[in-house]
Amino acid sequence: MKALQILALIVFGFFFLGCDKEESNDPNSLGGDVKTEISDVGDEFGLGVKIGNEYVNLNDQIVVKSNNNGLVTLNIKGNVSSAPKIKQLLDKIPIVVYDNQGNVDVDVQFKVTTAGIQDFFNKDKKPHTLVKYDAKVGDQYKLTKSDGKTITRTVTARSDVDDFPYGFFDIKTITIEQDSRIPGIQKFVYRANHKFGIVYAEIFLEDGSKISSYIYAPNY
């Protein structure tokens, strides 16, 4: 199921508004208010996907389909026919992600609150924290699956100045790295902002190449 993460966070991506909130010390316990400014049904998100240094147009459409007390379902559509490297990764996903015409059309879920974001992209479908907005460098979000393997996400940087370009301005970011056991993938890297949520995502491949995407909010 980790391959689905490629689809949801790199190929099409998303982000949700958040702010700091005190909560449990459990890394996979997420507090905060379930009402956020951009997780309303109908909200749409934009991408800027690159393979290496070249932009690719996936004709992507990412829309909030439902929000059930913070459990947000996104419908993701796109065409990867012009991006064979991305299609190769999606083809590893053990679920149907394509419609009858061969285009991507799939629903994915996240828990979204004003304190952070979680996904369920593991074989047990347990909540796994992507980011907490009060994160400190060195924080880890670990999840041990029923097969005994552990997925580890580590906060590797947090900027105190607006130094990351995002659209027409610069913002502060938190950087999270995740290990990978998917053949061909070295690691995942995400950037999050205390106001805009997940704003950038990268896949570092074992052949030395990289797939990346900016993730733009409806009202950024």
Which descriptors would you attach to this protein?
mainly beta, two-stranded antiparallel ribbon, globular, 15 strands, 2 helices, 13-stranded antiparallel β-sheet, 220 residues, single chain, YmcC-like fold, 44% strand
Overview of this structure, please?
The protein is mainly beta and 220 residues long. The protein has one domain (2-216): YmcC-like fold, CATH 2.40.360. The chain has 2 helices and 15 strands. The strands form 2 sheets. Strands 1, 2, 3, 4, 5, 6, 7, 8, 9, 12, 13, 14 and 15 form a 13-stranded antiparallel sheet that branches. The chain is globular and about 45 Å long.
The largest β sheet comes out as:
13 strands, antiparallel
Strand content: 35-45%
Distance between the termini: 30 Å
Number of domains: 1
What's the CATH architecture name?
Beta Barrel
Q: What Rg, in angstroms, do the CA atoms define?
A: 16 Å
Number of strands: 15
Tell the overall outline: globular
Q: What ranges have pLDDT less than 50 throughout 5 or more consecutive residues?
A: 11-23
The CATH topology, please?
YmcC-like fold
User: What quaternary form is this?
Assistant: single chain
Helicity level, as a percent range? under 10%
CATH class designation: Mainly Beta
Number of helices: 2
Organism: Ignavibacterium album
Protein name: Lipoprotein
